[in-house]
Every structure is written in structure tokens, then in C-alpha cells.
């Protein structure tokens, strides 16, 4: 078999939401289709990918550098030795040809987007779900049959009062989620505490609520919030300071006794490893949120998991950012701790298979070959326009 | 006054050279022209910028995000309070609107490229050289009248033997350089030592030669090279390991007694600060090579210099990567330790004013308003096509 063509396009995922750092009024996402000549069920296999929210569509990079390198390579160089399937590791090395080390942003999103589509195609050609490919290859076949997911929302929006925030959280519980996340740091501490208490009244107790400052705080503010948050016993306190300010993270970890979370804005194994080396993160309680679709894809993620293991971290401490099905497959196949979910936003890219409901905070895995996008028709509509 | 238009284009700077990490066969550079309606010497002021070598032209990012944000802003928002000139700091904040923290690559190049053109225009509108603008604004008018520069070359090239390497270095000395740099790590240690000894035979002693591994080495190799290099008493040993692997840097610094250099692949204040916090760099001897044209420009560089000062570092320890006139102005105006120079390569972007020769390893500063590009006609030809 061989890859016949790789197409890409940009789709908007703009909305009126904002976190403590940016608004999403101009947010876009790249979608990629890897079209092969492998025939399954009578049709050519096509793998799909998209980049995660919070970073913009890397269309220029895909067109200027990443896709031409795959296109210009000998077709066999993208495949396994027996040429029966795509080899995402070999494709990764080709995509990164001529790239200097360091500077891990944007191109990490472009590579991650294509990597998703390559793994989707590879699993479809193998005729099995991606979570099973990963479990068989990297975990002796030991796959989880369900994954803990939490509903990430609670954004700031014009005109959204405490009642609307509570209604939002009630809707997540009604969908089957047991745990939710909300934004903080976009308002005063006093107002954020009112918002937190309003949500706690809905979800019952702190273990069901995580809060996310999106990297907005300086050290003083991070600590002040930590002191104020500690009595609530929250699930976790996320991204207090700048994602690269490991000193803030370490200081906060020395003072705040409960779980901290960060990592969604670290886009390489090296950056992730630096967080673990210098950020004072505690392997017995803290949560790492690296997102493959922003950070060079699954191929690099395996390196990150290896670096974590070297430093004494279990993959169960990882709960990826992004709320996409790629990370859901990785969670089940590689034994991660769970996955983010955006039930209400970033559609049609957020959320999982339509026919696999969330139950008691867990979601099952589709048996469909590939990542399982075909079980989410509204997403397949976007993809189908690309591969038609 | 106001900015009338910002244009951009891509120019090739491809060559057959390679370092230990990449070849430059497909290297490109973005050029930007900031066209204003301010009239000086009877003509509208135009500021020019380009990105530094080693990273590719960020055309997609410029077109998709960075330039539209400037264009869509109210024209006054790009200017000083009295609207008499461009305010690069305000422009910077506009260019970064909607950008999350972390992930400092690519967009840092796009912003750095525009930042260069904005400062060039701002200094031209002020009617003074940029180095003087900087000295007056940030250093009580205290500008250096010449800057130490070294000739960076010694790349690996097909068919280049020791004699050709020596001829190259002789040509740099003939141009007025006293100090040179060569690549290592693209061959065996034994062969690299032969290359080093061949160059030492030309330049006289180790203090006149720096070596650059371009981030290729693992810890073991970095230390082995360090042990073998130490007896030569080299000017510095540059970028031994991955630029984000601060542990390799720190280990090497504990063992190698002479100056180490790194930083060209760290693209933000946060990344630079992490190097100083965790990389074991020694403020009494080591060299920092942050390049404004790859790392969000001069506006961010001022933050980096502040972070350095907080950690006890003098700006004299900074010798920027890139060999461009922007860094030359910053070196003279902000009191840096020198500047890289590529006499033979990356033309027409490398090198300084044609009529200011290098003498005894130092180069003078042009009195021309702006960065001084107008004193390098071959570069102005490229720029002029953009602004015609």
C-alpha cells in the first residue's frame, strides 16, 4: 500500500468563551486527511486528524514544510519494512527533517495534527481500534475498557452569571459526568470563590471540581489563590503560573498540599521533562496534561512517557488536555489516568462517539477500526468534505 | 504619522553547508517592510526586517495571525502617545493578542521579524541610528563605538578538506577578524580534533577559536568532547547538548573549566531564564547567544536582559547568534559582549555595513538612521523589491 495524498483545510472553532488568558473569538483548527490506496470494506482507507484547541490552525507550516517533506519522500520511506502499513515513526522523522532542536511551538502542532491522521489510517489498515494497536504494541495487550473523563467548562462568557454557571454544570452531570472543571483567574479572587462555591453546590464536594487559571498568575497570586482554595479540597488546581515558570510551580507545590495540574502548554519531551525535573511536581498526587495533538503527536508522546518513567512517574498521572478521541485511545491503550472532555464547546471536534454515553464519569471505547471518528457523524461531515 | 502597509515575502538563503544537526539546502528567510507615511529626506520612511538563519521563513504565521492583528488594530494603537512615532512595545502586545503562554517557536520568529522592521522604522523616524535610540532610552546614552565580532564558519561541506577549512579561516583573518568559530560534532571526535588543530595552526591559539556542536551530543559525548577540548584553551565550547536539556549543560559546566556558550535556540524570556536557573551557566565566564530575530524581537529581549540582571548576569555575557545588523545595534546600544558574524554565508542577510570594515576583530557602527541596512546595498536590493 501507499499514501496517495494528504489534504488539509482550516475550520473555525470560534466562540464567545474566554479563559483568564485569551478569548476564543478567532480560534481555528486544521483538519488533515491521509488518503491511502489500501482497501478495507471495499473503500480506500483514509486517516483523519485535527489539532487541539487553544492553538491556531498551523496551515502555513503544513503547506510550507511538514506536508511537502512527506510528499517528496520515496513512498516506501513512509511505510513499515514489509510495506503493509504506514509507519508513523518513520513519517515523524521525515516531517522533522531539517528542523533544529528547541523552539517547540507551532510546528509541534502541525506535526501532531498529521501524526493523528497517520495513526488513524494505520489502525484502520490494521483493522483494529487505535487503543488496541497501542495496547498490543506498548502494553502487552492490556487495554482499559473505559476511561475516566471530566467535563471541562466554566468559561467566562458575556452575561454569564452564577445561575448560568450552575446550569452548565448541572447539564454535565445530566450527561453522565461525575467531575467538572471551571476557569478561574479571569476575575477577582473573591468573585472566583463565589463562582467555585456556586459550582460546589451543584457537584456536591471538592473532589468533583477542578479549577484552571490558564497560566495567568504571578507567584504571589498563585499562592494567594492556593491558600484560599485549599479548604475546598478540590480535585486539582491547574496551571497557576506561566507554563514555563517552573519556579512558580515548585513554590506552589511546597505550599499547596492538594493536587496540582499542568502541562498542556509544554509541547515536547524536553519541555515535559523539564517540568518534572524542575517544577517540583509530586508523582503521588499531581496531574500532567500534555496534549499529543499540540506536541508532535503520539510518536513524541511515547518519548515523553519514557522520560516520565525514568523520573519515577506512572502514566496514570497523565490526563491529557484537549478532549479529543486521539487522547482517549491513548488513555485506554497506554494506561493513562483519564482524559479531558468538552461536552458543550469546540464542536464538532470535542467529545467522543455519539453512541457511547458517559456513565458515572467514565466513557467506553469504540470497537471501530482507527481512532473512532466514524462514530461521531457531525465530525465526519467536516472530514468528508476534505476527502470527497 | 501612521503605518500605511506592511508587506512580506520569502527569500532563499539555501546553501550546501551543514552543521551537526541539519543541512541548509532548503533554508528560507522572511523579509518584511513596514511602510509609513512619515516623510524623511523627502521620502516615506520604510522599516525593514528579516528572520535569522536556522529557522525557516514564517510566512504562514505572518499572513494568518501576526500581520492581520496589526492591520486590524486602530492605526493610533500602534503609535506613541503623541502619535509622532511607532511604539514597538504596543505593536508587540497587539501581535501577541489571543496567543496562549508557552510553545515558544515559529511565532517567536514571525514576531521577531516584524519587530526588527518596526524598530528600523522607529529609529528612522527619530532620525538616529537604532544603537543610539537604545543607548539613550535604556543606558543613559552610553553607547559602545565598536563591537567585538567573530567570524562564524567552519561548516561541513561536500569535498571540504582540512586545507579548504584553513583557507576559509585565513580569509576571515584577512577580512580583519581576530576570532573565528567552526562546527564540530558532524564527524568523529578524532576527525574533529584534526580539524580543530588545522584551524589553530591558522588562528594561532585557542583563545581565537570557538567550536559549535549545534546541540547534537548526549551527555557522554558532550563530556568526552569537553575532556578532549579542554587542553586547547578554546574561546568557547558551544551548544553541546539539546538546547532544552539543562541537565547536560549543568553537568558539562561542572566538569569543563573553560567558557561554555548556548542559547540561540531558546526563543523567549521564560526559556532563557530557565537556562540561567537550571543550566549551571557561570556568570563569570559563559556566553549567552539569544537571537532577537528568532525570539520575539527586541521587545522581548529587554525582558530577557531584565531577567538576566535579576539573576546576577551582566549584559556583557551576551553575544547574540545570527550575525545581523539588528543584534549589532543592540550590542552597541545595550552594552552586550559582541555579535556573531557570517562573512561568507547567508548572504545578503549576513554581515554589516559595506563601508565599515572589521578591524582587529571589531566593527564600527553606522551613523545612518535606523538599523543601517542602507549601508549594505546588496541587502537593500532585496528589500527594495518589497517596498517598490
How far the N terminus sits from the C terminus of chain A, by CA atoms, comes to 20 Å
| The CATH homologous superfamily of the largest domain in chain A | Enolase-like C-terminal domain
Q: Note the beta-strand portion of chain A.
A: 15-25%
Q: What overall geometry of chain A do the principal axes of the alpha carbons give?
A: globular
Low-confidence stretches of chain A: none
Mean of residue pLDDT values of chain A: 96
Structural class of chain A: alpha/beta
Count of domain modules of chain A: 2
Strand elements of chain A, count = 11
Number of continuous helical runs of chain A: 12
CATH class of the largest domain in chain A equals: Alpha Beta
Element order of chain A: H for helix, E for strand = EEEHHHHEHEHEHEHEHEHHEEH
**Largest sheet descriptor of chain A:** 8 strands, mixed
**Helix content range of chain A:** 25-40%
Q: List the chains of the largest interface with their residue counts.
A: A-B, 46 and 45 residues
Can you name the CATH architecture of the largest domain in chain A?
Alpha-Beta Barrel
Under CATH, the topology of the largest domain in chain A can be stated as TIM Barrel
Amino acid at each position: 500500500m501507499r499514501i496517495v495524498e494528504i489534504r488539509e483545510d482550516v475550520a473555525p472553532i470560534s466562540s464567545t468563551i474566554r479563559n483568564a488568558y485569551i478569548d476564543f473569538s478567532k480560534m481555528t483548527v486544521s483538519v488533515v486527511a491521509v488518503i491511502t490506496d489500501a482497501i478495507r470494506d471495499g473503500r480506500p482507507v483514509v486517516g483523519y486528524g485535527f489539532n487541539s484547541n487553544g492553538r491556531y490552525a498551523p496551515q502555513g507550516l503544513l503547506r510550507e514544510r511538514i506536508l511537502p517533506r512527506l510528499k517528496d519522500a520515496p513512498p516506501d520511506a513512509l511505510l513499515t519494512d514489509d510495506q503493509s502499513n504506514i509507519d508513523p515513526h518513520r513519517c515523524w522523522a521525515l516531517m522533522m527533517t531539517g528542523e533544529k532542536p528547541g523552539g517547540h511551538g507551532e510546528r509541534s502542532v502541525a506535526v501532531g495534527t498529521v501524526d493523528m491522521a497517520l495513526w488513524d489510517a494505520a489502525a484502520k489498515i490494521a483493522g483494529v481500534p487505535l487503543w488496541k494497536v497501542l495496547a498490543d504494541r506498548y502494553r502487552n495487550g492490556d487495554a482499559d475498557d473505559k476511561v475516566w473523563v471530566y467535563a471541562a467548562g466554566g468559561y467566562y462568557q458575556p452575561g454569564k452569571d452564577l445561575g448560568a454557571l450552575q446550569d452548565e454544570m448541572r447539564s454535565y452531570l445530566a450527561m453522565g459526568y461525575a467531575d467538572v472543571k471551571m476557569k478561574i483567574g479571569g476575575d477577582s479572587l473573591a468573585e472566583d470563590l463565589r463562582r467555585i462555591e456556586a459550582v460546589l453546590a451543584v457537584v456536591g464536594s471538592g473532589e468533583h471540581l477542578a479549577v484552571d487559571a490558564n497560566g495567568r498568575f504571578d507567584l504571589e497570586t498563585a499562592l494567594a489563590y492556593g491558600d484560599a482554595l485549599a479548604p475546598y479540597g478540590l480535585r486539582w488546581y491547574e496551571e497557576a503560573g506561566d507554563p514555563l515558570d517552573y519556579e512558580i510551580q515548585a513554590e506552589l507545590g511546597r505550599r499547596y498540599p492538594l493536587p496540582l495540574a499542568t502541562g498542556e502548554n509544554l509541547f515536547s519531551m524536553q519541555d515535559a521533562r523539564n517540568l518534572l525535573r524542575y517544577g517540583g511536581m509530586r508523582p503521588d498526587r499531581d496531574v500532567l496534561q500534555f496534549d499529543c495533538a499540540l506536541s508532535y503527536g503520539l510518536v513524541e508522546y511515547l518519548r515523553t512517557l519514557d522520560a516520565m518513567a525514568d523520573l519515577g512517574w506512572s502514566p496514570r498521572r497523565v490526563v491529557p488536555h484537549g478532549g479529543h478521541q486521539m487522547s482517549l485511545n491513548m488513555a485506554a491503550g497506554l494506561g493513562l489516568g483519564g482524559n479531558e472532555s468538552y461536552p458543550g464547546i469546540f464542536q464538532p471536534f470535542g467529545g467522543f462517539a455519539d453512541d457511547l454515553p458517559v456513565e458515572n464519569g467514565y466513557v467506553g471505547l469504540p470497537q471501530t477500526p482507527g481512532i473512532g471518528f466514524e462514530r461521531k457523524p457531525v465530525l465526519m461531515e467536516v472530514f468528508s468534505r476534505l476527502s470527497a
